[in-house]
Amino acid sequence: MSKRADTEERLAAALRAIPALDRLREAAGGMPVYLVGGAVRDVLLERDPSELELDLVVEGDAGALAAALGGVEHAGGRFGTAIAEVEGTRVDLAGARRETYAEPGALPDVSPATLDEDLARRDFTVNAMAVPIAGEARLIDPHGGAADLAERRLRVLHPGSFVDDPTRALRAARYAARLGLQLEPETERLLRATELSTVSADRVAGELARIVDEPAPRRALELAAEWGLIDFDDGAGERIEQVTALLDRPPWSGVADRRAALLAALETPPARLAELAAARPRRPSDAVELARPLSAVELALARVAGAEWLDRYVEEWRDTGLEIDGDDLIAAGVPEGPAVGRGLEAALRARLDDGIADRERQLDVALAAAAAS
Ligand code: CTP
User: Which of 57, 80, 159, 191 has the smallest count of CB within 10 Å of its CB?
Assistant: First the structure.
């Protein structure tokens, strides 16, 4: 079988394995609709079709297709952009459009266009392929994306691509790392000349967040640093790796927001965290006192800086509570005010350090401490 026939055979098989496309075909009723972008690329890479997010471009009224489809979660914009849940798959719909950039880094002006023009506005050749969802599975690949993918090459469609949208430089790091692609030399030259400073901080932060949301973000961040896009100190790669691993396993999974922790790990840690790593709290209550003021992200960063004692804190000590509360002390005659706090603190120390779990004994400890001046 020729390479092309083989590709189209694979596309057809993958498309048959996506139940959402049957519904879409029905709703489109003859309107030309194409699967585009990452889904086509990932089908060519033989990724499991059930894991794909579907980006569809409509040559025509995308809003009408969304209406016919139902299940639309979000719709709006002049190009009928809509997000729908179809047969359990997320589907992004948009009318074919061209984009022009009034100035570097600005958001584009958009107007209706053909599929070819829509593909030509895109970032990389591997993302600029399409397949019609009805009729024969035919790869539409005007920029040579399939060949680049086969050669593991990341290439922009035109020399102005990074000028139009400098955040594409960060996207390049994400794709290169995730898909194991090398920058084509001219693309690399253009990328290294890219200035992220013309882009709003929000948009840069958005692309950085997409990088750290990848399952293994270290490589992409190292590439972004190597290409001069982000600052990265000597320990940053290791910190990223360690935070990724830490938040993936108990007792740390869920302790801190993964994205926030990874973004914070990009920065050189403050001296305070190194001090926590060097600390050797003698008693559980000493550990609690040191750790309690830390935010969830700081806890994770201090742990990867070497504060192993935080494992016990997270697992056990930070949730340790008392059988008594301030009302019990007041009912026993302690005046409202700082004495109540002193009493409860002493009881908590007794609970943490000496295992005093019994309510009466906790109350005794608390009352004694509250009475002491
Ligand atoms: N795109 C672009 N320039 C950008 C952002 C997006 O050209 N700055 C195009 C790309 O062709 C991309 C498509 O829009 O394939 C969809 O963008 P996005 O949803 O951000 O990409 P994803 O498909 O989510 O990325 P992934 O490939 O990780 O799935």
Answer: 159
